[in-house]
Design a protein that fits this description.
It is globular, with a radius of gyration of 15 Å. It has a domain of 54 residues: Orthogonal Bundle (434 Repressor (Amino-terminal Domain)), CATH 1.10.260. By secondary structure, it is mainly α. 61% of the residues lie in helices and 0% in strands.
Length: 88
């Protein structure tokens, strides 16, 4: 009989990994000297969209996360790996 090992459940909208990823995304924006207004322009959104995901009021889906990373000149894969290695 085959026994499958299941991943841990996604217990919360605010998982530690997700929060760390957003924290690193905000830091990447600031390190690049890009304002929320400029980032919004680069991704075709308003500044309020950027503010909401940075404050945790709105989640980014995977495609949006990649789009934001690319707009910042950040490698999405590297950012995720960093978030996994350096939790809160």
């Amino acid at each position: 009989m085959l026994v499958l090992e299941l991943a841990l459940p996604l217990s919360s909208l605010r998982s530690d990994l997700y929060l760390r990823m957003i924290e690193l995304l905000v830091q990447a924006r600031k390190d690049a000297g890009i304002t929320q207004v400029e980032l919004g322009r680069r991704i075709g959104q308003r500044q309020t969209f950027v503010s909401k995901f940075e404050l945790g009021e709105r989640r980014l889906d995977a495609a949006e996360f990649i789009t934001v990373c690319r707009a910042l000149g950040a490698d999405p894969h590297a950012l995720i790996k960093m978030a996994e290695k350096n939790p809160f």
